[in-house]
Amino acid sequence: MSLVSGGSDAGAALGARRAAVIPPGERGATRIADRVVAKIAAQAAREAVGPLPLDAGRPHATVVVRPHVHPGSGGRGPVDAAHVHVHLELDYPSDLGARCRAVRRHVTERVGALAGMTVPEVAVQVERLHLAPDPGAAHGRTR
C-alpha cells in the first residue's frame, strides 16, 4: 500500500524534485584509494622509462593523497592531490636527468587523466644503475 497519493508516479516525481534540489557537489563523492593511484603511477613510470635491462626491477610507486585547495579554485572546495614517490632502476650510461623528467611528466599526466587528481609532487628515486654491456668486451674469463 502506498502512502503517497497518486501511486508510484507521484513518488518518482517527488524523488526527481529532491535530486534536482541537491547540488551535485553535495550528493556524494568518489574516493580513489591510494594504492590504485600508486598502480597508475607505477604503470606510467614503466611507460616513460621504456625498455630496461633484463635484471632490472619493475618501477614501483608510493602515493599519499591529501585534500588540496587550488588558489584559483573560486572557493569550490578541496580537490584531491596525489603526492607521488616513484622508485626505479635505470641503465647506465644514459641521460638520467632527462629520463627522470620524462617519468615526472608522464606520471603527472596519467594520474591527472585517469584519477582526476592534481599531482603537485613527483619524487623520482633511482635505486640502482645497471651498466650496459660493452659490445666490444669479451664475455667470461680471458687468459
Main attributes of the structure:
single chain, 143 residues, alpha+beta, three-stranded mixed β-sheet, 26% strand
Q: Can you give a write-up of this model?
A:
The chain is an alpha+beta fold and 143 residues long. It has one domain: 2-Layer Sandwich (Alpha-Beta Plaits). It has helices spanning 8-21, 24-27, 34-49, 96-115, and strands at residues 60-68, 79-92, 118-131. A 3-stranded mixed beta sheet has the order 1-2-3, with helices on one face. Helix 4 links the parallel strand 2 and strand 3 (118-131). Helix 3 packs across helix 4. The longest helix has 20 residues, at 96-115. The radius of gyration is 25 Å and the shape is elongated. Pfam families: Asp23.
Briefly say what this structure is.
The protein has one domain (31-131): Alpha-Beta Plaits, CATH 3.30.70.1350.
